[in-house]
Amino acid sequence: SNQNAIELKHVDKDFRSKQLIKDAVLDNDFLKNLDSTQIREIVDCMYEKAVKKGNFIIKEGEPGQHVYVAADGEFEVQKEDKVLGKMHTGRAFGELAILYNCTRTASVKAITDVKVWVLDRQMFQAIMMKTGLQRREEN
Ligand code: CMP
What we know:
The chain is built from four helices and eight strands, in the order ααββββββαββα. The chain has about 140 residues and is an alpha+beta fold.
């Protein structure tokens, strides 16, 4: 049966990238309790994007469309123009607006040329739906 409107589209990636994404998810307090099937789908569905130095990946107050994992480079988290901290390779971010349907709680800026792994909101929700339904069918 297929009750999902969205098809889970897998993007090929090497072992090292898969491990980096998985470790980032498991290191994130809000994502680490997802089940292993869901985490594997997140790993398989993320796609890579390059962002140039100085650009914002996330802007505070906007609705959220994506979850990210820092793949390369340096990032700065800002709130009301104050710097909250820096982030490096291997951090998952942008999960709050997706999980809680709130607006972005902070801005995230590329302070070098960076690469990120990206997962679209609809894909994230389809992954949550799919494994939720599978679990229900098993009971
Ligand atoms: P979200 O609110 O979707 O978008 C901004 C992201 O920045 C947020 O999810 C978190 O992933 C991250 N973030 C928010 N506040 C902090 C903080 N104080 N330190 C580090 N990262 C943060």
